[in-house]
Amino acid sequence: MINLSRRDILRSAGGLLLGFAFPISPEFLEYDPEGSPNRGPDGEWLGAYVCIDPQGVVTLRVPASEMGQGVHTALPMILAEELDLDLATVRVEMAPNSIAYAHPSDVGKTQLTAGSGSVRGWWGPMAIAGATARAMLVEAAAHRWGVSVGSCVTAGGRVTCGEHAATYGDLAAEAAVLTVPEASPKPRRSWRLVGTEPQRLDIPSKTNGAALFGIDVDVPGAVQATVLHSPVFGARLVSVDDTEARKLPGVIDVLHFKGSETGHTSDFVTVIADTFWHARVAIVSVVATWEGGRSELDDATIERELMDGLEHRGQLCKKVGARPPSVESGVTYQVPYLHHATMEPLTCTAHVHDDIVELWAPTQAQGFTERAVAAVLGVPHDAIVLHTTFLGGGFGRKSEVDFVVEAAQIAQAVGKPVKVTWTREEDFSHGFYRPAFGARLNGAVDSAGRITDLSVRLSGPNILTRFVPFLLDGLPFGFFVGENFFDLPYSVPNQRLEYNRLELPIPTGFWRSVSASHNGFFRECFIDELAHGAGVDPVQFRLDHLVDSPRHHNLVRRVADMADWDHRDGRFLGIAVVESFGSIVAEVAQIRVEDHLAGAGTVDGIVVHVERVWVAFDCGRCIHRGIIAAQAQGAVGMGLSVAFGERMSFSGGAAVTPNFYAYPVLKLGQMPEIEVEVIEGALDQPGGVGEPALPPIAPAVCNAIFAAIGERIRELPIAGQKTARGVIFV
Amino acid sequence: MPSFTLNSRPVSVEVDPDTPLLWVLREQFALTGTKFGCGVGQCGACTVHVEGVATRSCITTVGGVEGRAVRTIEGLDHPVQKAWIEEQVPQCGYCQSGQIMAAAALLDAHPNPDEATVADSMTNLCRCATYARIKKAIRRAADEMPQPIAPQPPPTSTP
Ligand code: FES
Ligand code: FES
């Protein structure tokens, strides 16, 4: 956490500029946090996040990327709270890339927006920054007027005391020369802004076309480019015939690059043209020959490998109790690879000039990007100047560095600014997918309705392999694979968890809610199976096993009340509760099942409609209720999209899902009514908000389907699964 | 040289008439509020109005709008935009220009749409799944828009 002794005013140029230096990892020791700012024309900002200028404008540099989750409103709210400002008057700027803006968590020390962690990580430092600035402004005013600090009042960007009044801007220069005090944030009872729901600061520009996304960056003199990678994962570029492409209108050049030795990029071809459209037309005429990869890999071989991984003993990850049962006679669950499908395709603008590499990118990962570009281009870290735009969706895909590194490589080669925009087809076929996973689960319930045994075997790729291959064996198991089983909230005396790691050439990565997106499904459906086997109501069964997990217990009770679970009267309901990223979410789905008519009056299956969803969301300390509710609705929508129909397909060693027509993203007409209750639980810390509402929806819907038709859905997506009444349609 | 009306101004542009309108708007006119999402008419991020009708500009050639009136989000001034702010619809915001253009065209054609009409005409994708608030914002805008005067049935009784 924050080290108060290193708190520092970084520069006072007529205004008050406050920042904090954090203890940093050895890798960055060449950077001296207390030394003079060392970067570019903006250098004097380094490390600062609050600036009050002589005109009284308060600017907040937000270290986290805005990708829809509302962080460019939530963090300013915390500052505005402490500084007694009107939120609408705070100017928000995205911070540049700098270790000074590294996420203040104990691990990583990199500037990164991920893991539903921005408010969790930054609320403390932001509150202290605001409280410190306020204390200094008040002290400056008290000096000026010869009054006591305690007699001064702050409101609306002014300090007042009796007939004295001064704006923050007026006091900023005097405040800046004071010694930085030990200020503590307001007590909770004095909050007037945190916990309410003011309008988001980024929304007006998102209703008139003005918001600047990565794809909208327009650097004077820029050329346009698009890229082509090997369809087959892991193949190398053998030859390129660009004769036809070069004849096409607007084409400036066709270049190809070898994958970087650092592993950050693979071989690719790029067409550079005067417009994106010309580049896009021409790249179709490039004849590239690739060699290698695993061309026999397809959906069937992937499924076979997943299932093989369930057939033999895996790494033992958890063992509790005297006689952990074997999984052999258990039931098998399965989920497919998923794509992030951010609405904004991958894009980055790059310009290598004057010994710097200037980048404009919709990235979640300033820190990783800076390191990767420096390594691949062979330039020092502080040559990388990265401007982060709004992200048209991130969900983990934009925490990868590939699209930025490639743009930097192209810019270095062409010597001009270049904007690289991926086609949607490249975006789909070169993702870092949520891995497919299989699970086999077995359990036993005693005559009193208590689960005595639970054993689980997981089979699937580990997304960490790519990042820390050398650490895999030493890693505390559970990281991005075993969550939700490793830390089981249900009381079960005998538990066993095993894992078989698959090596497949398909790139995998962090996808909204990560492992909870599959383990939540496996676990919560299986708990329902055990409840049914024991003849106990699924809500009651959970409550019986959650006595030692009071937050879960409370939420299950609450969401059941919201849905009027005890009076179902022919409604088909399913429940699930899943914890992730410091928050817990319980959801109930209500579904309706109809016959699907094949025409001429014949029935060939059933249609599942999700009518209503109730969400009880315990995210600890709550900053902005409206944003939390919106994230919950959005995560339920995305989770439903996944549950209904999303699946990446593979053939010939390549991803063969080309565009949205083969990857059905949920539409407005399929969106159920969603009622969200944000419960400020016992935790005084904020929990995660962007991801945790996603995992419970798939199991809640599948459990509701069981209630309706008496059959278990153990594989996603739901569409296309076979039942006794035919295939399921959504 | 294709000529059309763009946000109420007559324009002409030197470009192959087969170029998708989307890229002419973004690259020749620097109107980047209209977004590229899929390029194949699937997502609606590129929705503009052509003669007031919501149209996917990635699959509409600039030659195809010769002599017609095109409106983009930058040229829109419509009650749905206010409703979008009041209901706090956007998350990442990337799809929202297209959503707003689709909603504005819907309400101009059906000032008081029922739920089924909204579902049938609002087929743009939103990966952030802001649909719940989109529905509310459309309802709110409809309630605030002037409604056409419908002929009143004769009163059957006087209270
Ligand atoms: S970009 Fe036009 S419909 Fe997707
Ligand atoms: S608001 Fe993000 S895609 Fe719609």
Structural features:
heterodimer; A: 730 residues; alpha+beta; Aldehyde Oxidoreductase, domain 4; 3 domains; 6-stranded mixed beta sheet; 14 helices; 30 strands; disordered N terminus; B: 159 residues; 5-stranded mixed beta sheet; 32% helix; 12% strand; binds FE2/S2 (inorganic) cluster
Straight-line N-to-C gap of chain A:
47 Å
Report the β-strand fraction of chain A as a percent range. 25-35%
Which class best fits the helix and strand makeup of chain B? alpha+beta
Determine the CATH superfamily of the largest domain in chain A: Aldehyde oxidase/xanthine dehydrogenase, molybdopterin binding domain
Most extensive chain contact? Answer: A-B, 62 and 55 residues
Average of per-residue pLDDT values of chain B? 94
Distance between the termini of chain B: 66 Å
What is the N-to-C order of secondary-structure elements of chain B (H for helix, E for strand)? Answer: EEHEEEHHHH
Strand order in the largest sheet of chain A? 11-12-9-19-16-17-18
Radius of gyration of chain A: 27 Å
Low-confidence stretches of chain B: none
The 3D shape of chain B can be described as globular
Radius of gyration of chain B: 17 Å
Regarding CATH, which class of the largest domain in chain A? Alpha Beta
* CATH fold annotation of the largest domain in chain A: Aldehyde Oxidoreductase, domain 4
Tally the helices of chain B: 5
Extract low-pLDDT stretches of chain A. Answer: 1-13, 20-46
Tally of DSSP β-strands of chain B: 5
Write down the domain tally of chain A: 3
* Helix-strand makeup class of chain A: alpha+beta
CATH structural architecture of the largest domain in chain A: 2-Layer Sandwich
